Amino acid sequence: MSKIECQKCGHKSLTFDNFMDLSIQIPRSSSSVQGCLDNFIAAEKMEKCGYKCSKCKAVDRMDKAITIFRFPKILVIHLKRFSRREKITS
Question: Do the Cβ atoms of 13 and 58 come closer than 8 Å?
């Protein structure tokens, strides 16, 4: 589930997407799968993206968060092992 929330008016937009695999990055601060998943679902600020709130029409003042609403029966996790042309060896 993808949730976009307007910082100005608090309006929330929810979108559900089906998936069978996740492609997640390995953060430098973590070496566990749980740490990688926590990094994947962490909220982020959307700036200079052109997204407009459907309620108040504010632009570029959004928070985006991804959560897993329901896991598939079989989940494939792909760990991204490269960051800016540098191989992550942890």
Answer: no
